[in-house]
Write a structure and sequence with these properties.
The complex is a heterodimer of chains A (about 325) and B (about 240). With about 325 residues, chain A is mainly alpha-helical. Chain A has a single domain (about 20-300), classed as ABC transporter involved in vitamin B12 uptake, BtuC (Orthogonal Bundle), CATH 1.10.3470. Helices cover about 75% and strands about 0% of the residues of chain A. The radius of gyration of chain A is 20 Å and the shape is globular. The relative contact order of chain B is 0.18. Chain B has a domain at about 90-155. Chain B has about 240 residues and is of the alpha/beta class. In chain B, strands 6-7-8-3-9-10 form a 6-stranded mixed beta sheet, with helices on both faces. A 4-stranded antiparallel beta sheet of chain B has the order 2-1-4-5, covered by helices on one side. In chain B, helix 3 (about 95-105) runs parallel beside helix 6 (about 140-150). The chains are: A mainly alpha (about 325), B alpha/beta (about 240). At the A-B interface, helix 7 and helix 8 of A face helix 2, helix 3 and helix 6 of B.
């Protein structure tokens, strides 16, 4: 009987919460805000996946490095946060190009497994190096956006930060779309991702093109990190959690779709916040991300918007 | 006779430990069509790949007197060598139009647009499908697109690896007619690897027969077409 009572007790609380419209709305806004941050890191993953066919596990670590640089530039050097983030994006791009040149390019681009293992190694090395250089104590990075909320309903607030996060991620997708579809370097990038051999045969320099992809992905990842970190605290393992949610977002959206990455990010952000709030699953937040990955792989391996490679021959 | 446009001497190529070409010599004069015949595994595709530095090689490859051996693929393309690889020479996720623009990737002159329109006229089906992705085209249409993509470079040397592969005989015939027309019109030197020996010998000026990575026979295409050994082995009558 005691067990039954406690189960009923849990449901009581849950039912209370479920009928609370303001709580729903509040979690909805929080979910969108989180989702936007997952979406931007997912976009970086999709960039690399599209061009190389593998998931760059070091993506979160390059973003981590970028966020620490943003912290140095803003908190220690006194630059405005937005300026510091832009500087950090540039710096992390440079690091990513160097990493690509030294650790990735020596391997043949069509053998994926060794490259995946290299990126896993890079994840461990960069995360540890950040820990060694900056220590493991937590720091806080201020947000790029003003505090406060222009719209409020009771506890539900649509904050400037939520609006800023969403606006940033949509701006990034729009700019990426223009870059990839309207510029020559974008054409080269898409040609390399479509057919490596033919890309060589039209005179595209494959190595520098992929290096450009790494630089761009690192900049986007750093921006995503700068969106997410103000909600949490900056410490060397922070991006590992973000990476897992972003992987879930990218898998849900379909790994090779940029629009899919954004929608996947928002869905994962919403699902996470609603599950944690209404089912008291805060211990299992990361597990929900892994569950999303598993379900997608089982039910629809190409994700919501991924392309199944159907070709007429 | 002036020096040949493409002159290959002692060309060797290997995939890892497996030696495929054992030092072959051949040459193509400017504006000619040369055909390479041979059984499967004789090294025909490898020969074309070697010319573009898509496989590691030894030996000399001279194009208009300049040494290509040792250069990178991207630089060889900038010297005007276009290569239509076997089977999949297009970018399946890109539109027909984008495939042509990718073909002109190394060009920055203002006539790229006019060239694309010209190939849309030559291959009207490509013009009708310019917004479609290449992967959605039929095999024959994809082969036309791969060739048009290569011609967008305005190549001085066009390498074609089995352009007839998987195409219906009628389509193959019209494709070869178009290739000879382009050769006559623009003076593009062509080196063609082809299984359809009778068709290829019909349009070629010179022919080389590869056997096990060595040149077994060579000569003017009409002489080889009349050669009893070639007829038995490659023409089947």
């Amino acid at each position: 009987m005691g067990v039954l009572a406690s189960v009923l007790g849990v449901f009581d609380i849950t039912l209370d919460k479920l009928s609370d419209g303001e709580l729903w709305l509040a979690q909805f806004f929080r979910g969108l805000s989180d989702g936007a941050t997952y979406a931007s890191v997912a976009l970086a993953l999709v960039m690399i996946y599209k061009s190389t066919g593998f998931i760059n596990f070091a993506q979160g670590s390059l973003a981590l490095l970028g966020v620490y640089l943003a912290y140095i530039f803003s908190v220690e050097q006194g630059l405005p946060v937005a300026v510091a983030v832009v500087c950090a994006m540039v710096a992390s791009s440079a690091v990513a190009m160097l990493v690509e040149r030294v650790f990735i390019r020596p391997f043949p681009p069509d053998h994926v497994l060794p490259l995946v293992i290299v990126t896993l190694g890079l994840l461990l090395i960069i995360d540890s190096a950040v820990g060694i250089v900056w220590g493991f104590r937590t720091r806080s990075l201020p947000s790029m956006f003003p505090s406060g909320a222009p719209i409020e309903w009771g506890i539900a607030q649509l904050t400037w930060r939520t609006i800023g996060n969403l606006g940033t991620v949509f701006a990034v997708v729009g700019l990426l779309y223009l870059l990839l579809s309207r510029t020559k370097v974008g054409l080269a990038f898409r040609a390399v991702s479509s057919n490596l051999e033919s890309a060589r045969l039209v005179g595209i320099r494959v190595g520098p093109t992929l290096g450009f992809g790494w630089a761009l992905a690192a900049a986007i990842g750093t921006l995503g990190g700068a969106l997410v970190v103000p909600d949490l605290l900056l410490e060397p393992s922070i991006m590992l959690r973000v990476l897992i949610f972003s992987l879930a977002a990218a898998a849900l959206g379909g790994l090779d779709s940029m629009v899919g990455a954004v929608i996947g990010g928002l869905v994962v952000g919403l699902a996470r916040n609603l599950l944690v709030t209404f089912l008291d699953l805060s211990e299992l937040a990361l597990a929900t991300a892994v569950a999303v990955i598993l379900v997608v792989l089982l039910v629809r391996p190409t994700g919501l918007f991924g392309s199944t490679r159907v070709e007429r021959v | 006779m002036s020096a040949p446009y493409l002159e290959v001497q002692g060309l060797k190529a290997a995939y890892g430990d497996i030696q495929v070409l054992h030092g072959i010599d051949f040459s193509v004069a400017e504006g000619q069509i040369a055909v390479i015949l041979g059984a499967n595994g004789a090294g025909k595709t490898t020969t074309l790949r070697a010319l573009c530095a898509m496989v590691s090689t030894e030996g000399s490859i001279k194009l208009a007197g300049d040494e290509l051996a040792g250069q990178r693929t991207a630089d060889i393309v900038r010297r005007g060598v276009a290569h239509v690889p076997q089977g999949r020479g297009t970018f399946p996720e890109l539109s027909v139009e984008e495939n042509l623009m990718a073909g002109a990737f190394v060009r920055s002159d203002p006539e790229v647009r006019a060239d694309a329109d010209r190939w849309y006229e030559t291959f009207p089906v490509l013009g009708e499908r310019r917004g479609q992705t290449a992967g959605s085209l039929s095999g024959g249409e994809q082969q036309m697109l791969a060739i048009a993509r290569a011609l967008m470079l305005r190549p001085s040397l066009l390498l074609l690896d089995e352009p007839s592969l998987g195409l219906a005989p009628m389509i193959t015939r019209s494709l070869f007619e178009q290739l000879t027309a382009i050769n006559a019109d623009a003076g593009t030197t062509m080196l063609v690897v082809e299984q359809n020996a009778s068709l290829a010998l019909g349009v070629a000026d010179v022919a080389y027969v590869l056997e096990a990575g060595e040149v077994a026979l060579s000569g003017p295409a009409d002489e080889l077409a009349a050669d009893d050994n070639v007829r038995r082995a490659y023409l089947g009558y």
